[in-house]
Amino acid sequence: MGAYDPNITIASPGGKPSTKPRFRILMSKSLWKAWENAIGQAGDQNVQQLWNHLAYRPDKLPLLGSVTRLKGGQARGKGGWSDVHHYEITGAGRIDYQFHPQYTGGTHGDAHAVVKIIRIDMSSH
After folding, report:
1. If DSSP codes are grouped into helix, strand and coil, which group holds residue 8?
2. In what order do the strands lie in the sheet with 24-28?
3. Is residue 64 assigned to a domain?
4. How far apart are CA 74 and CA 85, in angstroms?
5. Number of folded domains in the chain?
6. Strand 112-121 relative to strand 24-28: parallel, antiparallel, unpaired?
7. Burial of 118 (0-12, 13-18, 19+ CB in 10 A)
8. CB-based burial of residue 61 (10 Å sphere; 0-12 exposed, 13-18 middle, 19+ buried)?
9. Which residues does residue 100 pair with via DSSP β-bridges, in sequence order?
10. Integer Cα distance of 66 and 117 in angstroms
11. Which end of the chain is more exposed for a tag (fewer CB within 10 A), N or C?
12. Count of CB atoms within 10 A of residue 120's CB?
């Protein structure tokens, strides 16, 4: 039996994508209810745009929406992780994430490009 994995993979809200994503999207299991709430508040189309951004181009500006790279000590990436990025999901809130192009922390230790959602805040600000 392996070690407990606190993360889950987030599938595309719109079903299987036509092209293979560059990045696997992970999120702590403890954020699942907040993720469901984000879908309810922001709507399926906005969440799909977020998912597309994270899965295909988290290292670039989004085609729609806005992303800000956060500054400060806790926002800095370590161990190959990017700095924390803040994605505005409509006026409803924000999703903070980091990405790693060669993450090896999975069950088998093989390298994958990964995005990790680290914070979901759906209170308008």
Report:
1. strand
2. 7-9, 24-28, 112-121, 93-103, 85-89, 66-69
3. yes
4. 12
5. 1
6. parallel
7. middle
8. exposed
9. 114
10. 16
11. N
12. 21
82: its two tokens: 């990017």
How long, in residues, is the chain? Answer: 125
Instruction: List 27's β-bridge partners, or say none.
Output: 8, 117
| The two three-digit tokens of residue 18, written as one number | 């036509």
What's 54's domain CATH number? 3.30.2310.20
Tell whether 1 is covered by a domain: no
Whether the Cβ atoms of residue 25 and residue 10 lie closer than 8 Å to each other: yes
- Distance from C-alpha of 86 to C-alpha of 67, rounded to nearest angstrom: 5
pLDDT tens, position by position, 65-122: 889 888 887 788 899 999 999 999 877 789 999 999 998 876 677 889 999 999 999 8
This model's pTM is above 0.85 = yes
Tokens of 75: 């926002």
Q: Which domain holds residue 51?
A: 7-121
